[in-house]
Amino acid sequence: MIALFLYKKLIFNVRLSMMKFIQTFFILFLTLSIYSQKDSLQVGDKYWEDQFYINVTYNVLNNQPIEVAKSGFSFGFSGGYIKDIPIVKSGKMAIGVGLGYGFDSFNHSLNLVETNRNEFQVNNTITANKLKTHIIEMPIQFRWRTSTVNSYSFWRLYAGVKLSYNFNNTFSYNNASGAKVSFSNISQYNKWQAGLIMSAGYGTFNFHVYYGLSSIFKNAVLNGNPINTKVVKFGLSFYLL
Length: 241
Description:
Blueprint: H1 2-39, E1 51-62, E2 75-86, E3 93-107, E4 110-112, E5 119-122, E6 127-145, E7 155-174, E8 180-184, E9 192-202, E10 205-212, E11 221-222, E12 225-226, E13 230-240
Parallel strand pairs: 5-11
Antiparallel strand pairs: 1-2, 1-13, 2-3, 3-6, 4-5, 6-7, 7-8, 7-9, 9-10, 10-13, 11-12
């Protein structure tokens, strides 16, 4: 009985090892087949241009209250990955859906007041008045390009919308005595925002613009009037295959 049990266990282990070997071989074969197919693509075949992207921008606070002076130098950058979904066989038109991270820094003259009434003040004398934000972004694009499966430099025009979720925002400034005042994750900040995006150019370097459709604040007022500040960005996009 013991010998029979050991025999059956040995057979079971051998079969299990063979199954693992077959699975490993199949996965390796499938991977090699995919790469071989990619290398053998001909002009006119359907192809995907999944890409990593990096945006570097100069930021502008648009539609500011009239009491607010012009903002100082503001900047931002973002990066992520876009999944390419061709909608024609040639691959020259596609839909791109992405996921990424973005950081923005704004110099401004809106002075946040710690109050339950969600009020702001204007103070053009305080220094180092900044708003810094961290977001998760999801760009959705219609993509047109002159590329082929064997070309890596081509004309492109990508346009669509970008949805963003703010997971951290910090308002900080130095008061008259030089002490730093800071507020984080205020309730007035609009965590969900949307805007129009467009990237156009040739090769790696492309002009990029973002036009915010959503106000960055909700239920925020200045001298009794609602604040409808929106973000506009100009800069460059870099696409890496």
